Structure formats: C-alpha cells, structure tokens
C-alpha cells in the first residue's frame, strides 16, 4: 500500500533508485534530496550511507528512535569525540559538555540548567527581534540585487543571537565558532580538517570566556547571565552551552529565511493574502520548513547491538535520522509534496522530539517568522531563478547559496 501511495499518487512519478550505499553528498542528492528519500522510505528504510553508518527515513521509525534506549547521543568509544579523548582534543571536551552528544545522566544534568536559562532569556525577546529584522531588511532597500542570505538572514541572525547569548557582536568570530561546532555533527574523516575544528573551538572558547567574565561582573538579560545565576556549571560549561545556542540560531535560520523568500516569490497569491492579513505567517514558515528542512538529518549512535529492518547493527554504528524525509512521508503528511500552510504541523519533525528536541526551537521559529514578516511587509523581487539555486555540500544540512533579491 505504501508503494502504491508513493508511486501512483496524483502527479507523482516513481523515484529512481539511488546507488547503495547512499551518497548524501552526491550532486543529485544535494540538488534535491526528496526523490532519494522517497525511494529509501519505500525500499530501504534503513539504508547504508557511503560515509559510514545508516540513514533511517520513515517517519514512524524516526519518531520511535527518539525514545529507543538502544540508541544514544554519546559518540562511540572509537570516535575522536569520545569522552576519553577530552584531554586530547578540544572538540571532544566541547562534545562532553553539550546535550546533543550526551546520554543520561549527564544529558539531564546539562540540559536542565540550559533549558531553564534559555526560557528566562527568551521571555520578551519578540519585542526586539521583530524590529531588528525590519532594520536589517531596510538597509537593503533600493540597493539593487542583494544576496538575501549574506545581506539579510546572516547579519540579522548573527546580531540577534549575539544579543540573546550575551556576546560582543563580532561577525567573524561568530562565523568561525558556528562553523567549527557544526562540523562535530558530521563523520570525521579528515585529520587535517579535524585539527582546524579544534583550533576553531579553542579560539571560540577564548572569545566566549571574555563574555562570561564580563557577565560575572555585570549581569544582563542574556543567556550567559542567566546560566551564571542558575549556578552549578563551570565557566567552561557555560561557554559551551552558549556556543550551542549561538550555532543553532544562525546557519539554519539564514537558510530558512531564504527558503521562505523563495516560496513567497513563487506563490504570489499566497504572498498577497499574507499582505492582506488573510493568512498566518507562522504557519507559512512551518510549511516551508517542513518541505525544505534545513537540518535534513541528525545523528544517533547504536548503544546496544540489535537487528532493525533486517540489518544487524553493531555497537558504535552511526544512525542518521532523516528529518527531511520524515517531513515528506505520506504516512505522516498526506499529499506531502503540496504546499499547504493550513495543514496540521504538530507532527513536523524539525527540531527533534521529546528530551531530544532542540532547546532553542522556539527562538529559531521566532527568528524565521520575524524575518518572514519583514519580507511580507516590504515589496521585494526574487532575482535568482529558483531553478538555478544551488546548495552547500554539507552533510545533514540543506542550505541554499546566493539567493538574490531586490528590496524596494
């Protein structure tokens, strides 16, 4: 029945079979992962990945995996990020402090104060995030074609996150910090590249340590100050928590804002409805993110050897949960490839689930929604042909490149 729904649904052709192990960095996949996800869901729901490990693609399996005790967050003992390597590599020490790489009980010990401090900081943030988005977009008005990512999404998200976290607004330092952290979520195959990641994280810790010291002396309404006030964390742990929240709030956000602009420009009737106050901008954002999920996969690690979908999984094997596939699974979202902001978005898997849900999800949604609101409120023209938009070759992420628009 699943294959009948997928292959013979209205207007949908049977997707071509990808080579296995599947290459999540192939040109075809980077350009459009949806056909590969569709074939894998129907034919190989737990498929081997060329870079190592397996990718899980069915929504029901992914939702169940979040609570499966046989899967965990902590890196394999064979990984350079394993806790035993904390004294050797800065990257391993950072991973040992932040929830995405931790299992119980340390996961709870680190997540609880971070969650409390986050929501202390989040309260009232909308009052300044909206005006900040409008101010950044207004700078581009009348300036001719501008890259909406580097000209609007990135500077807006960078300044917003620096203020939220409690850092000096240093775009170069922030870019280096977020770039280094994101590389921890992909398989480490290049020793020279790993050395660069460690150097980047070392410099980032120094940058954030200055902010932590300043907030000890003069607290503010920011995340670092709230983490200090909560107590129970070392300054290094506070800094690593700040880095995690900072990184989550920039690259994925700038990509999402660009995707919203592409969708609005491609659907003038819906854009006109939003401008007339007849649509829901937040629902529009959720539907765009369902279709073009910035974080396409998130990693888990096999903690206990077991059989799944006919595959014998050994301890330490990476498992990538394909959120981008789940969000287009017809068993979870009927007619999944159709843009429909009125659909039920409660089952969308974008920020994880349960205790594995991204703590910064409400802030991420707010940043993208306020960026979208600024675009709706100001006339714009998409200059780049949507059919020619390219994407970064980054494992697990769908980030567009060079989305040019003219802001009036």
From TrEMBL:
UniProt protein name: Putative cytochrome P450
Protein origin, superkingdom: Bacteria
Family: Belongs to the cytochrome P450 family.
Keywords of this entry: Heme, Iron, Metal-binding, Monooxygenase, Oxidoreductase
Gene3D superfamilies: Cytochrome P450 (1.10.630.10)
Pfam families, A to Z: p450
PROSITE patterns registered for this protein in UniProt: CYTOCHROME_P450
Keyword Transferase: no
One MF term in the entry's GO annotations: iron ion binding
Species of the source: Maritimibacter alkaliphilus HTCC2654
């Amino acid at each position: 029945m699943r294959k009948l729904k997928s292959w013979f649904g209205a207007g949908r052709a049977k997707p071509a079979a990808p080579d296995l192990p599947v290459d999540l960095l192939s040109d075809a996949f980077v350009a459009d992962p949806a056909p590969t996800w569709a074939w894998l869901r129907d034919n190989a729901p737990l498929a081997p990945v060329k870079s190592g490990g397996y990718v899980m693609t069915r929504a029901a399996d992914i939702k169940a995996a979040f609570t499966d005790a046989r899967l965990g967050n902590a890196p394999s003992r064979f990984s350079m990020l394993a806790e035993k390597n904390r004294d050797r590599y800065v990257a391993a020490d950072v991973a040992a402090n932040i929830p995405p790489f931790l299992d119980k009980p340390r996961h709870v010990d680190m997540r609880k104060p971070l969650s409390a401090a986050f929501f202390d900081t989040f309260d009232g943030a909308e009052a300044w995030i909206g005006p900040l988005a409008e101010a950044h977009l207004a700078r581009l008005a009348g300036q001719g074609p501008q890259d909406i990512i580097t000209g609007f999404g990135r500077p807006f998200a960078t300044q917003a996150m620096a203020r939220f976290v409690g850092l000096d607004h240093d775009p170069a330092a922030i870019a280096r910090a977020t770039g280094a952290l994101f590389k921890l979520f992909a398989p480490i195959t290049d020793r020279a590249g790993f050395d660069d990641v460690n150097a980047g994280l070392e410099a980032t810790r120094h940058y954030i340590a200055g902010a932590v010291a300043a907030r000890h002396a003069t607290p503010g309404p920011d995340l670092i100050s709230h983490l200090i006030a909560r107590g129970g964390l070392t300054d290094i742990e506070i800094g690593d928590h700040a880095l995690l929240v900072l990184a989550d709030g920039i690259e994925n956000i700038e990509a999402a804002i660009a995707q919203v602009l592409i969708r609005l420009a491609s659907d003038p009737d819906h854009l006109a409805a939003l401008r007339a106050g007849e649509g829901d901008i937040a629902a529009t954002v959720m539907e765009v993110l369902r279709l073009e999920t910035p974080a396409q996969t998130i990693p888990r690690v096999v903690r206990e050897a077991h059989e799944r979908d006919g595959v014998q999984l050994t301890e330490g094997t990476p498992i990538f949960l394909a959120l981008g596939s789940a969000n287009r699974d017809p068993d979870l979202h009927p007619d999944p490839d159709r843009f429909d902001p009125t659909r039920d978005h409660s089952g969308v898997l974008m920020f994880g689930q349960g205790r594995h849900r991204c703590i910064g999800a409400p802030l991420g949604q707010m940043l993208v929604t306020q960026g979208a609101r600024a675009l709706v409120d100001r006339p714009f023209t998409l200059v780049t042909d949507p059919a020619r938009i390219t994407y970064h070759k980054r494992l697990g992420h769908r980030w567009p490149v060079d989305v040019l628009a003219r802001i009036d």
